Amino acid sequence: MSSNTELQWKGYAVHDTKLWDQFKVTDFKPKGIEDKDIDIKIHTITGGWGEVRLPLISGHEITGHVVRVGPKVTEFKVGDRVGVGAQAGSCYDCQRCKNGAENYCHKVIHTYNSIYPDGTVSQGGYATAIRANELFVFRIPDALPLEQAAPMLCAGITTYSPLRTNGAGPGKSVGVIGIGGLGHYALQFAKAMKSDKVVAFSHSENKKADALALGATDFVNTGAKNWVEEWTDTLDIILCTVDVSQHIPLSDIFATLKVHGRCVMLALPDDALPPIHPFSLMASGVLLGGSHIGSKAEIVEMLDLAAKEGVKSYIEMLPMKEVGKAVQGMKAGKVRYRYVLKVDI
């Protein structure tokens, strides 16, 4: 256990939702310290979303070093390289929490913009430090630089978990729709898990070279004619990382699946999914599902696999003071494929 008197609690916060790309350095109070909590001095972070409780410090893919551990912490010591993803707490007592599915706890506490039991609003990683229960802190393998690991703690696990859950690996064919912040991980992890075929789907040829470099065995331009007919009944699993209301009809996606194939929606569109005709599901008995980040066990497994198989984050580094530029670039789709911000306060 170490004193945290030297630790500052400051961050870049939004103060007005109409000025969503303007951030001001703000002091904040962390949640009350508990026995299994860890204080982390932040080095790099990425990410931001959601309705806000102002002023709010966002950011939910965080890496840094442990500077303080509570008396009942068993996994970490001061100086360890660690990370925190999109979840910072749960109830710890429900069936889901006790069975390794804490990421589906009904009382989930998100890394920012949630309310802790003591009434504190959780503040994210655009800051100097973060406090979290050790269940939601992850050791970063030595082979992974902190800036490479940070985006994996949400975007990476969002793709790894459904691949693992739905059986990606030898003997399976995996499709990935969209090559961006999520898709570039999905392709790499599907390959790292030794899937027989990894098929990238994109609406133009612009990202074909990237897709093949990331591990795709095949590339499908969904803007071309007859692509559905050519890929009917070929895939076991599809991860969809794009807003299907603006891209590919769901019936076309389902047509590429084998009998009892699975389509997992990972994109979070502002509106509902487009209408689905029951026959498009019944024709091959396909299953449509979702996924929410991942459990601690899955995240640890993912980081180890990334280190072993050389999975890379395609990132652009910026100083944290340029967070406004980063969120503008994300909104405009200019980043390739994740921004990572380095602490400068």
TrEMBL record:
Keywords: Metal-binding, NADP, Oxidoreductase, Phosphoprotein, Zinc
Gene Ontology molecular functions: alcohol dehydrogenase (NADP+) activity; zinc ion binding
Cofactor(s) required, per the database record: Zn(2+)
Any Pfam family matching the protein: ADH_zinc_N
UniProt xrefs under PANTHER family: ALDEHYDE REDUCTASE
Transmembrane is among the record's keywords: no
Gene3D superfamilies in the cross-refs: Medium-chain alcohol dehydrogenases, catalytic domain, NAD(P)-binding Rossmann-like Domain
Catalysed conversion reaction: a primary alcohol + NADP(+) = an aldehyde + NADPH + H(+)
Family: Belongs to the zinc-containing alcohol dehydrogenase family.
Identification of the protein by name: alcohol dehydrogenase (NADP(+))
Source organism, top-level taxon: Eukaryota
Domain (Enoyl reductase (ER)) ranges: 18-341
Subunit-level organization: Homodimer.
EC number: 1.1.1.2
Broad EC category: oxidoreductase
GO biological process, one term: alcohol metabolic process
